[in-house]
Specification:
With about 325 residues, this protein is an alpha+beta fold. It has 9 helices and 10 strands.
């Protein structure tokens, strides 16, 4: 039991560290009127350090209010107002300090008529020039939201951990394909439904149940590894579909934070979902390659070590569950 505990704690520390590194920053510029804008800059604090970033606007932009700074949970938030006599079209901004950092920043610009422009800035591209035409072309909507969906699934470690648990639980290619297909179908249904406001559920309970779904799969993994029969292992697509509905609500919450362009809501939704599926497929393929390559090496390890991934997954998911319950 001591071996299991040590291995699980090591894996927990590793995943928490990775999760900490992948949280994106966000910069929102929202129109108050035709010439004034509210700026909100939110940066997650990593490794207990507040990053030294600065938002630099072009010379035609005037700061109209002092920058207000506060901390909220594990995030560092700044807000202020700017004005630009000829509107935001043509504005150039730079996130100073982003290059060479471990951060990415989601940029959202909400125009006076309610249109949304969004993109991602990162260590390779820390500057953005707002187009003079403040509506996104169809190709820009498709490419931007596909990238956003792809990046979201790869930084959504709770969703990836659920998929990893499914991969470890399911035996056989055919059964795995059906399981991932049902998971995809389920979260696509709720992603679309919540995004289009057909129904909604509060975010904190949904996030807590997502963590609980991972704890459940970890428990099933341990049960199966000990030689017991499991309905979940025999019919994993049922569990994948059921919990996939909840994971789709989590995706919808992330998409809600990013926002949708009013003139291309359906295209943006479809593109984001395609990005999520591409990211998920990339992760599944990568994990299958790793597991296949490691089989020979893993066969040399003692039998008890087969349970280490399940204990690690369950420990981390339990940590998330407690953390999210505290937000109620």
């Amino acid at each position: 039991m001591l071996r299991y505990l040590i291995a699980s704690l090591c894996l927990l520390a590793s995943f928490v560290s990775v999760a900490d590194d992948f949280r994106p920053a966000s910069l929102t510029i929202q129109a108050i009127d035709q010439s004034q804008y509210e700026v909100l800059w939110k940066v997650p604090i990593k490794n207990n350090k507040a990053p030294a970033f600065a938002i630099i606007f072009d010379d035609q932009t005037i700061q109209k209010s002092p920058i207000r700074t506060r901390s909220l949970g594990s995030a560092y938030i700044q807000s202020w107002k700017i004005s630009r006599a000829h509107g935001i079209g043509g504005l150039t901004l730079t996130i100073e300090g982003l290059k060479g950092s471990s951060y990415e920043a989601i940029l959202r610009i909400i125009t006076p008529d309610g249109n949304l422009l969004s993109t991602v800035l990162n260590t390779e591209n820390d500057q953005y020039a707002v187009p003079t035409t403040l509506t996104m072309a169809k190709f820009d909507v498709f490419s931007n939201y596909t990238i956003l969906g792809f990046e979201h699934i790869l930084i959504g470690l709770d969703h990836l951990l659920f998929v990893l648990a499914l991969i470890l639980l399911v035996v056989g290619w055919k059964k795995l394909i059906w399981t991932i297909t049902f998971f995809t179908l389920a979260h696509s249904i709720t992603l679309a439904s919540v995004t289009l406001n057909w129904f909604t559920l509060p975010g904190p309970p949904v996030e807590a149940i997502i963590a609980l779904s991972i704890v459940f799969l970890a428990r099933e993994l341990i049960y199966v590894y000990r030689g017991n029969d499991s309905i979940t292992a025999r019919y994993p697509w049922i569990v994948a579909f059921t919990f996939g509905l909840l994971h789709g609500m989590g995706f919808a919450g992330a998409l809600g934070d990013i926002g949708l362009p009013q003139n291309e809501v359906l295209l943006a939704l479809l593109s984001f979902n395609i990005g999520v599926e591409l990211g998920q497929l990339t992760f599944v393929c990568a994990m299958l390659v790793v597991i296949t390559a490691a089989k020979k090496w893993l066969s040399l390890l003692p039998k008890w070590s087969q349970q280490v991934p399940a204990y690690g997954i369950g420990t981390l998911a339990s940590f998330w569950l407690i953390e999210r319950l505290m937000l109620f």
